[in-house]
Amino acid sequence: MPKVGMPEIRKPQLVKATMAVIDRVGLHAASISLISKEAGVSTGIINHYFGGKHGLLEETMREILRQHSYSITTQLKQLPVDAHHQRINAIIDGNFVGFQAENQVVKTWLAFWSYSMHDVQLKRLQRVNEKRLLSHLKIELKALFATENISSEQADLVAHGIASLIDGIWLRGTLNPQGIEAEKARAIINDYLDKQITFYTQKL
User: Looking at the UniProt feature table, which residue ranges are given for the DNA-binding region (predicted)?
Assistant: First the structure.
């Protein structure tokens, strides 16, 4: 975490520089020297306010998570509370369009995703993001499934299914030269959701 007193103008500047360097040379080669040069600041500033590279990496991931959460919650606030299909699509879009689909952000996300398996703090942040996604999905799915007399336990299973599809499609998109196709992602996930609703209603 950055120390209290870190000039607000420096945070986005350093986060942007960190993502640019990761995009260019990868996470492991993204040294404090390269990041400070990219940002036009001294290495001492990064060490003073973030305690070194790891602290800056953590703040960069936090900023990506903040932007991700803001994008989804902003879209949800603009939709009626009972428009569950639309709200689920807003959650899906939040993972595939806008800030999250920018090339530098995608590469940084992918690097952190891999690195978090070996870093306790980054793993914790990744789990926070996972729980937030599942929470958004479960709220909408339980309300939607209730109108179809489908149980909340089944809604939980579908929420995990959609989250898995989001992760898988996102990962495939990052490794695809054409990038992430948000429209296709939405079509695949909605097809899965429709089939799940049909399956569970036919069992009633």
Answer: 31-50
